[in-house]
Amino acid sequence: MGKKLFIKTHGCQMNEYDSNRVGDLLGESHGFEITPNPEEADLILLNTCSIREKAQEKVFHQLGRWRKLKDKNPDLKIGVGGCVASQEGKNIISRAPFVDIVFGPQTIHRVPDLYQSSLVNCNPGIDIEFPKTEKFDYLPSPSSKGPSAFVSIMEGCNKYCTYCVVPHTRGHEISRAKEDILEEVRSLTDKGVREINFLGQNVNAYRDGKDRTKGVGLANLIRESADIKGLERIRFTTSHPFEFGQELVDVYGEVPELVSHLHLPVQSGSNSILKMMRRRHTREEYIDLITRIKDKRPGISLSSDFIVGFPGETEKDFILTLDLVDEIGFDESYSFMYSPRPNTTALEFEDDVSLEKKKERLSTLQSKLKNNANIISRRMVGTAEICLVTGVSKKDPGQLQARTENNRVVNFNTSSQSLIGEFINLEIVEALPNSLRGVIS
Ligand code: SAH
Ligand code: SF4
Ligand code: F3S
After folding, report:
1. How far is the CA of 25 from the centre of ligand 3 (A)?
2. Does residue 270 register a pLDDT over 70?
3. Largest CA distance in the chain
4. What residue's CA is closest to ligand 2, atom 4?
5. Which of 90, 96, 104 is nearest to 70 (CA)?
6. Is 279 in the pocket of ligand 2 (CB under 6 A)?
7. Over residues 177-203, mean pLDDT
8. 164 C-alpha vs ligand 1 centroid, how far in Å?
9. Could you read off the pLDDT of 276-316 as tens digits, one per residue?
């Protein structure tokens, strides 16, 4: 019987991507098969996130629960990867000595070797380097599940926003060779993938040769991918307003495959807070950028990330954030309370907004964003949307599920399972709190 692998993933889509690739890799090297049940696993991997304190806390709680499985099955191996592993290194072993493998976001390709050593060696294997040779050179061609896939195009971040651990945990920006990315996209479209989401912490720093500045490399990559047969929708995430140059804005006017939805984190609507965050742009520059994008792509939907309660944030600063939400008309977005993180510059600032205030601001902002999203959903009723059919509806097996360009789930009745993986026209007939209902039009 083949060996069983259980992987749990915290954090962002980059971690999701990495986990899938580790699964592919261990399948090739050791014949591992994925199991949804940790109790029957021979190897358990936890891919961790360190973006906020809460995310980090989850790691040791989770490991504590798995320790009991190891008491029952001494042959079970446990590995910890991702951003907490990168940040903590051997401290993971000090706090959880039963862990066998520690690997970082840039050493996922070495997991098979680390696993092999753990079978013969009782000392834990730790490898959290940022090797110069990229991990991508060692990864097999990706398996695909469904019509939509992630393709990682770059690693790391050099922006050093003052609150953020990512440059510390993922290292500096490294871009993959454009030909390798296009090859991966081709291999996915050959397997039936219709929608690609280009991934990176800061994709507009994507660099192909000298084409680095302000999104030029990404703009070229999007143009060339759009020519690949079978690829009908292109997304990218996450981009940074500071590096969103005009060439990238222009792509919205040139490439219809690029979706009319953009996630462009702004974090705050106050210039003094943006400065303290070292976001390298002002509120006015952000608004100007959005205006130029809307000029090329009228009706584009926009979402964002926000941090409330950053050190020094006054009521006035917060109101500027609320105003910006109205001014831009953001759709469904993410918002978080500021959380001080190891090694970041913002640790030097006094975390002076009380927890109570942070909670209050978060709830005010979230209800505003939810309200906006509901208004947008209701406005979609009566319109025809081109949707990618992603699978069977979670609630009703007699229905299929599709996604609109602005990432909403639409459930619709059909008996034709062969629509999965296809684009179809749906008329939106009802807006529910978390999804839409459509009929084939
Ligand atoms: N690379 C992306 C996002 C990285 S992390 C970007 O630059 O936009 C995702 C989101 O987590 C951030 O956009 C930010 O809103 C939030 N975040 C990051 N560090 C945080 C911290 N210390 N406290 C609270 N939220 C944080
Ligand atoms: Fe973090 Fe800023 Fe880099 Fe985004 S751009 S990953 S928020 S440092
Ligand atoms: Fe978390 Fe690391 Fe992603 S900190 S958000 S898993 S880059």
Report:
1. 21
2. yes
3. 63
4. 201
5. 96
6. no
7. 95
8. 6
9. 999 999 999 999 999 999 999 999 999 999 999 999 999 99
Kindly report, residue by residue over 414-424, the tens digit of the pLDDT: 989 899 999 99
pTM score of the predicted model:
0.95
The encoded tokens of residue 4 equal 């069983």
Q: Pull the structure tokens for residue 87.
A: 């940040």
Q: Is 59 in the pocket of ligand 3 (CB under 6 A)?
A: no
Q: Is 119 helix (H, G, I), strand (E, B) or coil?
A: helix
Distance 377 CA to ligand 3 centre (A): 30
pLDDT band, very low/low/confident/very high, at 246 (cuts 50, 70, 90) = very high
Tokens 């992603």, residue? 390
Q: CA 52, CA 310: separation in Å to the nearest integer?
A: 13
223-229: Cβ within 8 A, 24+ apart = 223/251, 223/254, 223/255, 224/178, 224/182, 225/181, 225/182, 225/185, 225/196, 225/198, 225/257, 226/255, 226/256, 226/257, 226/258, 228/182, 228/185, 228/186, 228/189, 229/189
d(CA 405, CA 392): 19
Segment 181-194 shows an average pLDDT of 95
Q: Whose CA is nearest to atom 7 of ligand 3?
A: 166
Residues forming a β-bridge with 199: 152, 237
For residue 391, pLDDT beyond 90: yes
Read off φ and ψ for residue 9, nearest 5 degrees. Answer: -120, 125
In angstroms, the Cα distances linking 110 to 29, 114, 125, 188, 367 are: 11, 6, 11, 24, 44
